[in-house]
Design goal:
Distance between the termini: 39 Å
């Protein structure tokens, strides 16, 4: 995956200026900011919402699309179809606009209005589906995406829930970034678990560098995983292990931290008004877990929370007022 901008030589008299090749070259290299929680440990936030498409999904979406192009699964003039809670779809819509692909996104009706409008702004076709308890429900947005894929010639579905290139993308980009930015001193990682892609990919990379790094996967308290196969719908988006996810590598996860809607959504106003971090719902859950867990950390510990997207995508839901 491209993680560094391409350098171009321009101008006269051997003057050199540096330019980015295109929008997609700006994906990655997001900043790490310290969050002053009441703890002797150092706690930082990886601000993934500063990617050009507004979320961590820019990384996996670009990697899966470019791998599909290399393998001949996606050809010029083709169509990208995906089931998404919003951010993966937005990333694909942005990438499709740059690369010239048609994009069709299926989304649950619980997705925020801002996300749906953003998808359409990029030119994607959006198909909304009922919010279901199980992803394999015939009415679910994932089932609808598979139906569209079968009926659309020249279509490719990245299928973020089953495509192992999802965690691979984070293993190759996000993991090394966090390791380098912390100078190898990271002791704890807090990441939302949905598809399982970034917590598994980053976790695997960090564990290879230092097996003692603790990987904490933050899950919705009523997900398929937490309820042992009896999920109950929840309001938070971009989080929740809702089926046996092949992208989730439980072997590298040290602990699952369940967070309720009340806890995760309740953290959003605090993060915005006390710390200046306007974060999305999955990041609210991660912030809650990181804040609670950090109370038992020591001064030598360095924890990183991955904030997947911005609160600007959820303002219409009044979580911050």
């Amino acid at each position: 995956m491209r993680t560094l901008p391409m350098l171009l030589k321009l101008g006269k008299n051997n003057n050199i200026r540096f330019m980015l090749k295109d929008l997609l070259d700006t994906i990655g290299n997001t900043p790490l900011a310290r969050v002053p929680f009441n703890t002797p440990a150092t706690v930082c936030a990886k601000l993934e919402y500063l990617n050009p498409g507004g979320s961590i999904k820019d990384r996996s979406a670009l990697y899966m699309v470019e791998q599909a192009e290399k393998e001949g699964l996606l050809k010029p003039g083709g169509t990208i179809v995906e089931a998404s809670s919003g951010n993966q779809g937005i990333a694909l819509a942005m990438i499709g606009a740059v690369k010239g692909y048609k994009v069709i996104i299926t989304a649950s009706e619980k997705v925020s209005e801002e996300k749906l409008k953003t998808l359409r702004a990029y030119g994607a076709k959006v198909v909304t589906c009922p919010a279901t308890d199980a992803i394999d429900d015939p009415q679910s947005y994932h089932s609808k995406a598979e139906e569209i894929l079968k009926n659309t010639p020249g279509a490719f579905m990245p299928n973020q829930y089953h495509n192992l290139k999802n965690p691979e993308s984070h293993y190759k980009s996000l993991g090394p970034e966090i390791w380098e930015q912390t100078k190898g001193k990271i002791t704890h990682l807090f990441a939302a678990a949905g598809t399982g892609g970034h917590v598994s990919g980053v976790g695997r990379y960090l564990k290879q560098q230092n097996p003692n790094v603790k990987i904490i996967a933050v899950d919705a308290a009523t997900s398929f995983h937490q309820t042992k196969g009896h999920p109950i719908s929840y309001k938070m988006e971009g989080i929740g292990i809702d089926f046996e996810a092949p992208c989730l590598d439980e072997k590298i996860i040290d602990e699952f931290f369940p967070v309720t809607d009340e806890q995760g959504l309740g953290m959003l106003k605090t993060m915005a008004r006390k710390y200046g971090l306007l974060i999305g719902t999955s990041a609210g859950a991660v912030a809650y877990a990181g804040n609670e867990y950090s109370k038992k950390l020591k001064s030598r510990d360095l924890a990183v929370m991955i904030f997947g997207d911005s609160g600007r995508a959820y303002l219409s839901k009044d979580y911050y007022s």
